[in-house]
Design brief:
- By secondary structure, this protein is α/β, with parallel strands linked by helices.
- The protein folds into three domains: 87 residues, Udp-n-acetylmuramoylalanyl-d-glutamate--2,6- Diaminopimelate Ligase, Chain: A, domain 1 (3-Layer(aba) Sandwich); 149 residues, UDP N-Acetylglucosamine Acyltransferase, domain 1; 37 residues.
- Helix content is 17%, strand content 28%.
- It has five helices and 40 strands.
- Strands 8-11-14-17-20-25-28-31-34-37-39-40 form a twelve-stranded mixed beta sheet, with helices on one face. A ten-stranded parallel beta sheet has the order 9-12-15-18-21-26-29-32-35-38, with no helix packed on it. Strands 10-13-16-19-24-27-30-33-36 form a nine-stranded parallel beta sheet, with no helix packed on it.
- The protein is flat.
- The mean pLDDT is 94.
Length: 348
C-alpha cells in the first residue's frame, strides 16, 4: 500500500516509462473507472479508445502501442502480467490468523493436525483426517473421515472435503465448493426405478490448484477423480466422477464435465462449455464459450459450437446460418416468379 511514482513502478515491472517519473500513483483501476492518481492498463487493443479518454495518471501498454494517450505510459512485454505484479503492491494485507483451534470447532481426537494450522469457528474435522502445516480452515469448513490436506492450503467458509479425498499443497478452496460429493450413478430396472450405485472412489487434488465458489467435484465410482497441478477452476463448475483434468488446465464459470472425460494439460474450457462423458480432450485445446464437446478433440485445437468443431469450420457454418433468412427470401421470390410464369405460359 501507499503512494508510488510512475518511475518506481516502471522500474518494478522493468518497463520503459514515457512521461514524468515523479507522477504520483496511489491506486489502480480500469481505464474507464480510473481517476487521477490511478494506474491502469491496456491489454486488448480493441479498448484503445478507453485509453484515449482515461483519467488515469499512468497506463501500462505493450511495446507496439502507437495511439495517443492523455497520461504517462509504461511500455512492457505483457501489460496484463505487469498490472498483476503492480496490484500486489496495492493489495491490502491478508487477514492474520493465529495458529490454533477455535473453541467452537469440533476436531476428532485422532485427527492429525500440524502444530501451526488454523481451525476457525464452527469447523468440523472428522476422525483420521490429516491437516498439513500452515493450512487454514477459515470457518465452518467440513473435513471428512480420513481426508488429507497438504501444506499451506486455504479453505474458505462452508467448503467441504469429503471422506478419504486428498488435497496437495497451496490449494485454495472457495466458499461452498464441495470436493468428493457422490458421483451421479444409478441402475434402472424395467419399471424405470433407479437404484443408487455406491461411489467408493476418491478425489485427488494436485498442488497449486484454485477451486471457485460453488464448484462441485464428484468422487470416482471407483478409483480416482484427478485434478492436476496448477489447475484453475472458476465458480459453479461441475466435474463428474472419474474425470481427469491435466496440469495447468483452466475451467471457466459454469463449465460442466461428464463422467470419465479426460481434459489435457494446459487446455482452456471457456464459460458454459460442456464435455460429454468418456471423451478425451487433448493438450492445449481451447473450447470457446458454450461449446459442447461430443467427441475426442486432438491437441492444439480451438473449437466452438454444438457440437464443437474447429473454430474456422464452426465460424463458416455460423456465417451460413446467419445468411439463411436472406436465402429463404430469395427462394420465396423465385418460387413466386415461377408461379407467375406458369400462369403466363401454361403449356410451356
Amino acid at each position: 500500500m501507499g503512494t508510488w511514482t510512475a518511475g518506481s513502478l516502471a522500474e518494478h515491472v522493468e518497463g520503459a516509462l514515457e512521461g514524468a517519473a515523479d507522477t504520483p500513483v496511489h491506486g489502480l483501476a480500469g481505464l474507464r473507472e480510473a481517476a487521477p492518481g490511478d494506474i491502469s492498463f491496456l491489454a486488448n487493443k480493441k479498448y484503445a479508445r478507453w485509453l484515449e479518454q482515461t483519467r488515469a495518471s499512468v497506463a501500462l501498454v505493450d511495446q507496439s502501442f502507437r495511439s495517443s494517450a492523455p497520461c504517462a505510459l509504461i511500455r512492457v512485454a505483457d501489460p496484463d502480467a505487469a498490472f498483476a505484479k503492480i496490484a500486489l503492491l496495492f493489495a491490502p494485507p491478508d487477514p492474520s490468523f493465529t495458529p490454533g483451534v477455535h473453541p467452537s470447532a469440533v476436531v476428532a481426537p485422532d485427527a492429525s493436525l500440524a502444530p501451526d494450522v488454523y481451525i476457525g469457528p464452527g469447523c468440523v474435522v472428522e476422525p483420521g483426517a490429516v491437516i498439513g502445516a500452515r493450512t487454514r480452515l477459515i470457518a465452518q469448513v467440513y473435513v471428512g473421515h480420513d481426508a488429507s490436506l497438504g501444506e499451506d492450503n486455504v479453505l474458505y467458509p462452508h467448503s467441504t472435503v469429503r471422506e478419504r479425498c486428498r488435497l496437495g499443497n497451496r490449494v485454495i478452496v472457495h466458499s461452498n465448493a464441495v470436493i468428493g460429493s457422490d458421483g451421479f450413478g444409478y441402475t434402472v430396472d424395467a419399471q424405470g426405478m433407479r437404484t443408487k450405485i455406491p461411489q467408493y472412489g476418491i478425489v485427488i487434488i494436485g498442488n497449486d490448484v484454485e477451486i471457485g465458489a460453488g464448484t462441485t467435484i464428484d468422487r470416482a465410482r471407483f478409483g480416482r477423480t484427478v485434478i492436476g497441478n496448477g489447475v484453475k477452476i472458476d465458480n459453479l463448475v461441475q466435474i463428474a466422477h472419474n474425470v481427469v483434468i491435466g496440469d495447468h488446465a483452466v475451467l471457466v464459470a459454469q463449465v460442466g464435465i461428464s463422467g470419465s472425460a479426460i481434459i489435457g494439460a494446459h487446455s482452456i474450457l471457456a464459460g458454459q462449455a460442456g464435455v460429454v462423458g468418456h471423451v478425451e480432450v487433448g493438450e492445449r485445446v481451447v473450447a470457446m464459450a458454450r461449446s459442447v464437446i461430443t467427441k475426442d478433440i486432438p491437441s492444439n485445437q480451438i473449437v466452438q459450437g454444438f457440437p464443437a468443431a474447429p473454430h474456422d469450420e464452426a465460424a463458416r457454418l455460423h456465417a451460413h446460418v446467419q445468411r439463411l433468412p436472406k436465402l429463404k427470401e430469395h427462394v420465396r421470390k423465385l418460387e413466386q416468379r415461377v408461379r407467375e410464369l406458369e400462369k403466363k405460359y401454361p403449356d410451356a
